[in-house]
Each structure stands twice: as structure tokens, then as C-alpha cells.
Amino acid sequence: MKKNFLPFRCYVPVLVLAVCWLGCPACSDEAVEPEPSVPQPETTYPDAYQDKERTQPYPKTSNELIVNPAPFLVPQAMKTGERLQYALSRTEDFEDAEISEPQDGCMYNLHRALDAGTWYWRFRSTDAEGAGPGAWSETYAFEVKSETPVFITPPFEDFLENAPRVHPRLYCFLNPYIHEARQNVTSHPEYRQLTARASIALEADYGAMNLYADAETLRQHATWLYHAYYLTQDERYADKLVELLDAMLALPPTDAQLFTDNFTTSALTLAHAAVYDLLYGRLTATQRSGAEELMMRALRHSYQEQCGVEENHIFDNHFWQQNMRILTQAAFLLYDKAEYADEALPILKYYYELWTARAPASGFNRDGIWHNGTGYFPANVKTLAYMPALFSYVARFDFLQHPWYRNAGRALAYTNPPDSKSTGFGDNSENGDAPNRLTAAFADYLARETGDAYAGWYAGECQSLVRQDYELRLYRMCSNRTYESALPEDAAKMVWYSDAGEVSMHSHLGDAGNDLALSFRSSTFGSGSHTTASQNAFNLLFKGHDVYRSTGYYQAFADAHNLMSYRHTRAHNTILVNGIGQPYSTEGYGSIVRALGGNHISYALGDASHAYCGISDDPMWVNYFAQAGITQTPDNGFGETPLTRYRRHVLMLHPRTVLIYDELEASEPVRWDWLLHSPVRFDINEAEQVLSTADEADGFYAVTQLFGSSEMDITQTDQFAVPPATGGAEYPNQWHLTASTDNQPATRYLTLIQVCEAGESPYIIRRDGDTFTWGDWTVEACLNASGSPRLVVRHRTEPVVFSYGEESPVIDGVPYLRQEASSSLLYDETDGEYQVMEMTDRAPIATRKGF
């Protein structure tokens, strides 16, 4: 173990906007007095960092670019003609302007990198032919930084030039491998699963079936039969596909049936497209034209609804999960057909450009984590794999080089580890004791395509799950590629997903039976969609099982239980203000503004000061509240609050201790409710404010000690505000603990959590004023709400120091001069060397208008 501790400053970036000094600036015992601190300006909080529906053009000076080049996005309301034309220049007078051809939709991709520096752009509307242009918009400036990741996709013309003109083409990216795959198909370990799925479809009687009552069944049958015939060339599967098509053509769906919901539209489109593509040469002209007309009905209807909308919507779940992929496939089948090319080709171009502009994860997320919650990630896997596979093969460019894909393997490993429940947040994330088979299949796909070590380890640990997946089975049976399955030796104990707003901490990643895992969320994406009102909330797991976790059951997207006891802030390990939580909107946001990690301490700071900002005024949620018969009133936990400050410091003191330090302030006295949730009952020692839970089945227990600046009233209940609609043993009651501090304008909490194996004894925490000692750790925390916040953590035998506050700490016997007042500073071992990392708040990336 080498310590690097030199008497000079060496500036090295650590994480984002952190500065690392590989030594102290002082080489004597007496530190030089620092210059007087400049008063820190008050934090300015915008209404939102993301718009659900874009209201201002992007990019602007206040928008830090996610990738270079950035897409140009224009709110739909600012498009007054049929098309839009864009001008780009290095000068504000546009003397050297590059002017685009008129574009459909409300987006424009350059498909080339921009030099670092300031750029200017504007737009104007035109008619459908690109004539009659209107006046130019105001000018928007933005900055390209040299460190912005470069990701340059080919123009659509390159894709079109290389696109196949023969059938089948939906899986043209498998063409190099299909001959060998067919030769070896019967010996493949998934052959039986392949034919078993297809046999289910073989036994279906489509003539007796209520054909459009369940469009998803038709999609599945078409998929299973397509895969089986494509690989085996067994004519039984082809004949059954023709039977399915004939049944649908004999009774074409009405508009009411085809467009009853968007999943039905895409499912029926796929059922026709699969037969049309695979058996194009043997179908009659009548069969082909019938399938073509159904696909065009779906494309016309959907494109009219989507063009201009999807590029400006923060994230349309169903569209990105399934609909875009299938509609792209339909357009890909029809773009070269004389009767439909004029309509289908612009639609295909729109989806290609939309993927470039807003994929793979909203377009504003490079982290590899799913910003919309781990529970709904599997629903997106097939699209996340298929679209880059198709586009990469045809356009001859690796779409998996996008930063999100390059980080996705690691994100899977940290947020949804093998042999563990998911650590993440959002709808459905609490379900299952192991990863979903689609999640495992996606790791396998990444490992095969990119060689990513985390993905390879993950897939290797989940091989049985991988083989259960049928959606990517055709790809696996054709892709005869191997990969390493060892966890990287340099795997960090903490990962910060700065775009999405989460942090993952693990004591022993790769050893599920000994791993303490903590996830912490505070996101500029806010709450709503499949996310929950859980800013500054944490989940804690040991051995892959819940210790403390968000509660409630995801039985419906927005029934009364969901709105009041699942999505609501009261269901999460965070706080309430006067009993009020966070709204369901992008305005109810938080942000993780700091994160530092070493071998002994992992640290993150979340700021949810703006999250408690009123009711949910999104029309979608207003409608759902009305349907559930719930009013958004303070009695129900909704409304305005006088909260002005909610900063939560979360530290994992490896291997088995978690420390949380909360700073809470309001403009008037309020009741603070500090929340903690458990699957089992709490044993409460209220006199000493000690909370214990035991998981007897999995052989561990947790002891939590809570300290505050004011008296606390601790209560617990196993009742929900609104119980789940479906009860029974599958949905047991859960335990909800509240520590309340009443009538205080400000308060502080210090929480120490020890997780122990059965038979172990927790350390006794000894307090002397604001100093707390147990085992090898000592913590100094200012709990006086009128004093300057301060948190210092030291280890007895290792020279580890964490310091937050205004004072300059002593590190390894030498005074260290803090560079910024109230910074967070960590001296810890990383990569075998001790180093100092100091950080102030990182400004969140804004994708909406400036502030």
C-alpha cells in the first residue's frame, strides 16, 4: 500500500468537477492561514431541469451537451409550417451559415462533430415543399467543450444506400452467421427451447380464436414461428405463419381494433410484418398487398401522432419500449416498394433520426443506468438490442459506441446484481429475488458485441436466466461469440450516475452472500412516469435481500394504493414536511451534487431542496387522481411546503456501516418526519432511539441509531395509507417507521446503521457531545441546527479521513488547507495509493431553458 502525500498540489480530475490533490499543501505542523472565504451565493433552483414536453429550443448556452454533436430540438408549438429549416454558424451574424434542407419533425442531426467553442443556430418554418420560408427565429448560442464525448452517427443517406432490397431483411445483421447457425442448430443448447415455443404456436387454432382479443399472443406466435423457421427451415413453421396471416387477412382489424391502444397497434403490425418479410417470395400478390396495407395503416396513424412529439417528449414509455422498434421494422420493409415508398421512406428516416437524437435512454443520459427505474428496464431490452444491431449493420457504424451503451454493463452489475434483488427505484423494482431473464440476456448481448467485462461477468453469473429468454434467442443462436466472465479486478466500491441521479455502493460486489449494497436517488428527471417521488431516498440490501427499502406493491400504474402508498414519498426512505411529500412531475426533482469514493469510504450528497414544491399538476396525474377519488390536499400528503433546504449526506463505511447526515431547513416551523421502511417489524428502544430489525430467514439483522437536534417521537405501523387492491399472503403488510420532530424551522439528523450477521454483536456507539465512537470509527457531527453543518469521519487504524464543513482537517498528522468552504473532502486509498479528493457542488445538466 503506497501513500502519495507530497508538499505540493497536483490537479487531477476525480469523478466530475472534483479536484484531487495527491498531497497536502503544508509540509509542517503549522498550516498557513487560508485567504478569507468568499461568501457562498445562495443556491438558485429552477422550476425544473427537464421538461416533460419541451418548451424551449435545445441546445442553448445553459445546456451542457451530452454528446458532440448535439441534436437540434424545436418545441412543436414553435413550428408554424409543415417543415423546419436550420441555420448553424460560428458567428452571430450568420455570415458563414450552414443551412439545412427542410426537415420533417422538430429535430435536426448534423452527423458530424463540431469544433470546440461557441456556436449559433436558428430555425424557420417552411411549407411541405420547403418553399415559402417564414422569418428566422431568435438566435441561440451554445458551447461545445473539448471534453464532451464525441458520437457521430452516419447520415440517413448512408443507411439508405446500404439498406437491403431483398427479403428476409428484418434480421439482415445475422446474415454473416446464419449459414453456420443452421448447420449446427440441433446441437445448440437452446434448440429445445426454440422449438418448444414454436410448438405452442403450431397448436393454435386461429380460425376458432377471437383473433384480436389478445394481440400480444399473435405477436408472440409470429415471433416464435419466425425464429424457428429462420433457423431450421422446417416447413411446418412456414405453413403456420401463412395460416396466421390468412386468418388476419380474412378478418382485417377495424380501426377500433387496430388502434385500441398503441401496444395493440404495434403487436398486430409485427404479426403481419414477420410473415411478410420471412415468406415474401412465396406469398401471393393478394397476401403481400394485404400485409402491406395493414402495415401502412399502422405507419400512417402512428407517424401522424408521433412526428414532432416524440423528439420533444421526455420519455414516452410504450413508444421506446416496443412501438418504435416495430414501426421502424414496418417502414424498413416498405421503403423500397413502389406503391408505398413515398410514404414509408420519410417515416423510416424519421425513426432513424429520432434514434440518433433521443436514444438510447432519453438522449440525455450517458450513465448506462435506466433513468426510468430498474423495474421497467427489461421492457426496453429488445429495442435496446435490436435497433443498434440493425442500424450498425446497415449504416456500417457501431451505434454501441454511444456512452450509454459503453456504461450499461457496469450499470447492470451495480444496480441489479446477480443473485440479488434490484437495488434500484421505480415501478416494479421491488419485485423478484434475481435479475429478469431479459436483463441477463441484454448483458449477454453487450458482452458478445462489445467485450465489456462487467457485462461478461454478469452474463456468466446468469447463464441459466439467459437461456430462458426467447426475445434475443435468435441472435444468440446465430452469434457464436465467447467472452470473459470475470469481474474486473479494479471494480470500484461506488459508482455515481451523474446524469440520471443515482449512486450505487457495494461492500463486496461479486460476492452476493457478503455484500452490503446501498442505492441512493436524487434525480433531475424528477418523479412521474415509471419513477417515484423518492428524491434523497435510499435502499439498503444485504446478501441480496432488503434491509430497508421503499414499500408498497406495484399492482397498477395509478390506482389509489399506488398514488398514496407506493409512488408517494411516504413510501420511501426520505422525509416528509408537515406530512407532505414530493409531487409527481419533473418539477419535483433532486440532484446528486457530490460523490467521492475510496477503499474505506463511499460518499454522496443529494440535494432535494426543491423537491417538495406543490401538487402534481400534470394533466395525466390530475386525471389519475380524479379516477382514484383522491384529492391533492395536505391531509393526503400533497401541497406546498416551506422547505428551503434538504441536503442528505450518505456514507458507506466499509464493510458494514452506513452513515446518514441530514440538513433540513424551512422558512417557518414545521413537523419533520424522518422515514424508514422495513419488510419486518422494528424493535424500538425509544429512550436511546435505537431501531432493530432481524431477517431470520437470511441470517442477518440491522441496528440503527438515530440522533437529532431536537426531540423525536418514534412510531411505527404495518398499515398502508391505502391498502393494495389485491391482498393475501403474496402481499404482506410492511413496516413503516416515522421519527417526528415537531414545530422546528430547522433540524439535523445523524443516522448510524450497522448490519450484522446472525450471531455477531453490533458495536456500542458512545457519544460525547457531537462526537460518536464505535469500533474503529469516530464521527464528529454538528447537530445544532443553528450551527454551521459539519461532519468528520476518521478510522482508528487507517489514515482515512472524510471532512465536510468549513474547518481544515488534519490528514495523517498534517493540516490540510481546504480549498473551498463547506466542501466535501475525502482522504482514502484508491488504486493502492492514498490521495485527497475535494469537491463542491456539481451543477446538474439542464436540458430545458436556462435559468
UniProtKB/TrEMBL annotation:
A Pfam family per the record: DUF4962
Annotated ranges, domain Heparinase II/III-like C-terminal: 513-702
Name of the protein described by the UniProt record: DUF4962 domain-containing protein
This protein's record includes keyword Signal: yes
Signal peptide (UniProt feature, chain positions): 1-28
Domain of life: Bacteria
Heparinase II N-terminal domain location: 79-206, 223-479
Location of the protein in the cell: Cell envelope
